[in-house]
């Protein structure tokens, strides 16, 4: 499966299950306001699963 690029923001994010199942080589961009999401803890768990499966994460500072 091809790598996928996703972004997590306060106002938009892929489904939690989609994050957990990202194929190896995928990238997750986490925008600063993502930490304000009411479901942020669940996204952290999903990101951890994606990283364990071979995805990478970029924590963006100052981006909108």
Task: Please give the structural blueprint.
Elements lengths: L4 E4 L7 H5 L6 E4 L9 H13 L3 E4 L5
Parallel strand pairs: 1-2, 2-3
What can be said about this structure in brief?
It contains 2 helices and 3 strands. It is of the alpha/beta class and 64 residues long.
Give an overview of the whole structure.
This protein is an alpha/beta fold and 64 residues long. Helix content is 28%, strand content 19%. It is built from two helices and three strands. It has helices at 16-20, 40-52, and strands at 5-8, 27-30, 56-59. The protein has a three-stranded parallel beta sheet, covered by helices on one side. Helix 1 links the parallel strand 1 and strand 2 (27-30). The longest helix has 13 residues, at 40-52. The chain is globular and about 30 Å long. The model has no long low-confidence stretch (mean pLDDT 95).
Quaternary structure: single chain
| Number of strand segments | 3
Strand order of the largest sheet: 1-2-3
How does the helix and strand content classify structurally? alpha/beta
Characteristics:
single chain, 64 residues, alpha/beta, three-stranded parallel sheet, 2 helices, 3 strands, globular
């Amino acid at each position: 499966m091809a790598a996928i690029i996703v972004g997590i923001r306060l106002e938009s994010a892929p489904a939690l299950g989609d994050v957990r199942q990202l194929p190896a080589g995928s990238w997750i961009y986490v925008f600063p306001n993502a930490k304000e999401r009411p479901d942020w803890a669940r996204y952290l768990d999903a990101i951890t699963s994606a990283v364990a499966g071979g995805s990478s994460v970029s924590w963006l500072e100052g981006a909108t």
